[in-house]
Each structure stands twice: as C-alpha cells, then as structure tokens.
Amino acid sequence: QVQLVESGGGLVHPGGSLRLSCAASGFTFSSYAMSWYRQAPGSEREVVACISSAGGSTNYADSVKGRLTISRDNTKNTVYLQMNSLEPQDPGVYYCYICIGGVNYWGKGTLVTVSS
User: Fold this and answer.
1) CB–CB of 84/18 below 8 Å?
2) pLDDT tens column, 9-21
C-alpha cells in the first residue's frame, strides 16, 4: 500500500533552517509528481511546493519562494523540502502528498516550530 513518512521537523529560531524528508513506498515513485503541504494551527492545509516526476519542474507558493526548495531522489524514493530563512508564518505540520488514480494520499506529517 502507499506509504508516505515525513521526518525532519523540529524547533528552529527565526532565520534558521530545516530539511524535511518524505520517504515513499508502495508505488512507482519516479512516475509521479509529489507535493508538500503545510497546515498552520487554525488554518486550512495549503500547498507550499510541488515537483514533477523527474524533478525537472518545481512550483512554489508565493509566500515561500526563494526560501524553500523542493527536490527529490528517485533512487531513494524520497522527496525533500529544504527550508531556509524560516519566518514566524512558516510553522505548522508539513505533509507529503500524492494523488494516484484520483485517490489522495497523505503522510502523518512532521511539525515545524519557529520560535525565538
């Protein structure tokens, strides 16, 4: 079955960096685009970054452009989110997402906290 397991979240000071990872299994990873979503407390889940199946195309939410970078390693079935210059609006639970055959799959998420 499809599994997405996020890791790498934690507490970081404003301006700090984190690298999130999402290990995928149960499907042909290299055939699908992948996305990272964020859900802040009291807010709806929103997409922050997407990457094409081969990694050659990426898209970002305006609020994270220039600070967050999505990448993938198809040999490791893993997608990453490098988070730099973290800001007070960045905290939340970050989820890995894929849609296969019209079915949405989510990981359990990893918590990012930004605090001085």
Assistant:
1) no
2) 999 999 999 999 9
Distance CA 36, CA 79 (A): 9
Q: Give the C-alpha separation, 29 to 78, whole Å.
A: 8
**60: which DSSP letter?**
E
Q: Give the list of residues 6+ apart from residue 10 with CB closer than 8 angstroms, or none.
A: 18, 111, 112, 113
CA–CA dist 115, 82 (Å, integer): 18
Q: Which amino acid makes up residue 3?
A: Q
Q: What is the rounded CA–CA span in Å between residue 9 and residue 19? A: 8
Is residue 23 within 8 Å of residue 85, measured between CB atoms? no
| 29-76 tens-digit pLDDT | 999 999 999 999 899 999 999 999 999 999 999 999 999 999 999 999
Q: What is the C-alpha separation between 113 and 11, in angstroms, rounded?
A: 5
Closest CA to 29 of 96, 95, 75, 94: 75
| Residue labelled with tokens 């000071």 | 13
